[in-house]
């Protein structure tokens, strides 16, 4: 167990959660799951929505949940989940037990010397070592951050001296590779950093730049996927713990059709995103190069258009068990209120498209599911939902039914 995890373990012991501390070991990859699960433990099709309170215990903070990390014991059994995101304008860390009950909610610390009245923070991802990445600052001058643990002050990741604009760290893998972007008035640069063993950052290394450029994900092999001007790309990072370099960008095509975007990559090298054979279509591109179309959602009283979007996917040794989350735009029945800004949130798995609005139970809230951005190997989902007045966002986790 690394030093950072020892700090967190001591914290859990201090608040009496001894049973959870063995789960702080690195979780195994491709843990066998049920027939419906994608490399995880989700055997059913339904979910329970869990709203996440802020550090004061309030459920009224505007925010979202973004990053997930499974807590498993030495036998590989899931005993809980770490979640990072935003609540009440501050980056937050939550820990939940295996049933989905939150037992830790902590606002992450501000950078040293930051003005608490003007500084906003956001947490986007967490790795096996408990390192959290995100941003802090004021709008227009946001800077990328890495929190060595949820109990420690963040480390600012370097940006070019002359850079003016917002810089954000989006994802981190389990070897300390971080991807994000630098966004100015004229272009967005896709960049990567490396975190040394003592958390000293190296970089940034620029992977590509354009007015419309995004790099949403990096896996443990150092493969980065992203999008530049409606073209999906893949890069390979080389990181020895001290020196960071990157390959040239590889444009992703299937035959003579370009893939429009690449939004996530799993540990097997499978990629999800969108392309346009006849219109926007969500795909799953296997590591072996096979392209699998995600089916549209067709439901009684409403019909999906071909406009779909993939946000994340999880790991599974069997490609048919990989789960992809995203959304589809829909036409609702005449007279039905339109409450979705992005459409219907869905999970694609086993050749099926599952409408999350129809299979999610809310025992303790009355929220409208709005966005799902992350899925764990056990099938847990993270995102946000709207309050009944459709005005404010609330961070939520969807926990699969046993």
Task: List key phrases describing it.
4% helix; mainly beta; 2 helices; globular; 32 strands; single chain; five-stranded mixed sheet; 402 residues; five-stranded antiparallel sheet; Methylamine Dehydrogenase, Chain H
Short description:
This protein has helices at residues 3-14, 356-359, and strands spanning 47-51, 63-72, 78-87, 90-97, 102-107, 120-126, 132-137, 143-147, 155-156, 166-172, 177-183, 188-195, 201-210, 213-218, 223-228, 232-239, 244-246, 250-251, 253-254, 257-265, 271-275, 281-285, 291-293, 298-299, 302-313, 324-331, 344-349, 352-355, 360-361, 368-375, 381-386, 393-400.
Plain-language structure description:
- The chain is mostly beta strands and 402 residues long.
- It has a single domain, classed as Methylamine Dehydrogenase, Chain H.
- The chain is 4% helix and 49% strand.
- The protein has a five-stranded mixed beta sheet with strand order 29-1-32-31-30. Strands 14, 15, 16, 17 and 18 form a five-stranded antiparallel beta sheet that branches. Strands 19-20-21-22-23 form a five-stranded antiparallel beta sheet, with no helix packed on it.
- A hairpin with a 2-residue loop joins strand 27 and strand 28.
- The longest helix has 12 residues.
- About 8% of the residues have low confidence.
């Amino acid at each position: 167990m690394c030093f950072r995890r020892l700090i967190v373990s001591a914290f859990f012991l201090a608040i009496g959660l001894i049973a959870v501390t063995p789960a702080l070991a690195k979780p195994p990859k491709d843990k066998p799951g049920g027939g419906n699960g994608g490399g995880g433990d989700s055997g059913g099709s339904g979910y329970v929505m869990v709203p996440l309170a802020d550090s004061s215990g309030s459920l009224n903070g505007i925010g979202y949940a973004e990053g997930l990390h499974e807590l498993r014991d030495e036998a590989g059994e899931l005993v809980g989940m770490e979640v990072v995101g935003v609540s009440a304008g501050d980056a937050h860390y939550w820990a939940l037990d295996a049933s989905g009950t939150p037992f830790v909610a902590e606002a992450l610390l501000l950078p040293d010397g930051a003005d608490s009245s003007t500084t906003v923070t956001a947490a986007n991802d967490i790795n096996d070592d408990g390192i959290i990445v995100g941003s802090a600052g004021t709008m227009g001058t946001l800077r990328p951050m890495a929190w060595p643990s949820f109990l420690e002050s963040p480390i600012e990741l370097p940006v070019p001296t002359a850079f003016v604009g917002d810089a954000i760290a989006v994802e981190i893998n389990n070897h300390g590779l971080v991807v994000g972007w630098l966004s100015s008035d004229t272009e967005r640069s896709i960049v990567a950093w490396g975190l040394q063993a003592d958390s000293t950052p190296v970089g940034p290394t620029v992977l590509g730049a354009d007015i419309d450029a995004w790099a949403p994900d990096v896996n443990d092999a150092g493969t980065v996927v992203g999008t530049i001007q409606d073209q999906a790309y893949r890069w390979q990072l080389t990181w020895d713990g001290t020196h960071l370099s990157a390959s040239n960008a590889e444009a992703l095509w299937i035959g003579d059709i370009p893939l429009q975007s690449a939004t996530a990559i799993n540990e097997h090298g499978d990629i999800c995103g969108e392309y346009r054979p006849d219109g926007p279509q969500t795909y799953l591109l296997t590591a072996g190069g096979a392209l699998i179309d995600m089916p549209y959602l067709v439901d009684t009283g409403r019909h999906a258009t071909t406009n779909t979007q993939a946000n994340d996917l999880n790991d599974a040794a069997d490609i048919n068990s990989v789960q992809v989350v995203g959304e589809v735009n829909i036409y609702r029945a005449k007279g039905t209120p339109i409450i979705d800004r992005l459409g219907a949130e869905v999970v694609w798995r086993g050749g099926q498209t599952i409408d999350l609005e129809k299979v999610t139970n809310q025992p303790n809230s009355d929220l409208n599911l709005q966005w799902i951005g992350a899925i764990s190997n056990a099938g847990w989902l993270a995102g946000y939902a709207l309050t009944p007045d459709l005005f404010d966002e609330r961070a939520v986790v969807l926990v699969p039914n046993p």
